[in-house]
Amino acid sequence: VDSSTVLQDMHGLRVVVSAGPTREYLDPVRFISNPSSGKMGFAVAQEARDRGADVTLVTGPVSLADPAGVKVVRIDSALQLRDAVVGAAEAADIVVMTAAVADYRAAEQSTEKQAKVAGNVTIHLTPNPDILAELGRNKGKRVLVGFAMETHAGVERAAGKAQRKNADFILLNYPTREGTAFGGDDNQVTLVRADGSYEDWPRTTKREVARKLLDEALKVRPAR
Ligand code: CTP
Ligand code: CA
């Protein structure tokens, strides 16, 4: 038996987790998205559930089945993700944003399929709301955790994001770390705080990363 299934140290806590990609439809049959598998967010939801938390998992389109004992909300777009997360976060103690939110959506979504034309086309995009930043502006006593994937200057950029979005910490990874990140079962992350302090965690399973993430969130909580 896994020790976390015995230790109910999150009993009575409400945890909201976002996972997976968003889809930003251009027309009824085409969208902009990214390769997020949802595995990291699902692992956080399952770990929190096994530790006794009341868990809401808001997920974009992924090929993973609903975890038992978790309230699962399926969404497509960043705007839908925003509404679901902000609503659920109101009563939450901990919010973990693993979702790979598309930064832009179509400025105008066509209701009809767009036929191809000769030559180049231009797509007009408009920024999506920053959900983590919005949660950070109305933080209350909640612990806010973000994720970031960076190709360079990772710690500096992740610390800047934690600061700007008022997140307690961000777990940073790099697309070049093989077997981790998009689609893998393992992850190798660096915990980065707004003050620029950081800890490199060893490569391990996403479930173990989830466990350490929640340990850190529980450590941060009393200071709220
Ligand atoms: N995030 C969010 N809403 C968005 C974009 C990102 O809530 N519209 C969250 C992500 O879920 C993640 C964190 O913010 O937890 C960092 O995401 P990232 O894409 O690295 O941050 P951005 O501010 O979008 O910066 P970048 O320009 O590097 O994409
Ligand atoms: Ca982004």
Automatic annotation (TrEMBL):
Catalytic activity field: (R)-4'-phosphopantothenate + L-cysteine + CTP = N-[(R)-4-phosphopantothenoyl]-L-cysteine + CMP + diphosphate + H(+); N-[(R)-4-phosphopantothenoyl]-L-cysteine + H(+) = (R)-4'-phosphopantetheine + CO2
Amino acids binding CTP: 103, 113, 129-132, 147, 161, 165
Membrane is among the record's keywords: no
Domain DNA/pantothenate metabolism flavoprotein C-terminal: 10-218
GO molecular function: phosphopantothenate--cysteine ligase activity; phosphopantothenoylcysteine decarboxylase activity
Annotated region described as Phosphopantothenate--cysteine ligase, given as residue ranges: 15-224
Family from the record: In the C-terminal section; belongs to the PPC synthetase family. In the N-terminal section; belongs to the HFCD (homo-oligomeric flavin containing Cys decarboxylase) superfamily.
Descriptive protein name: Coenzyme A biosynthesis bifunctional protein CoaBC
Organism: Deinococcus antarcticus
Shown residues within the full chain: 189 to 412 of 412
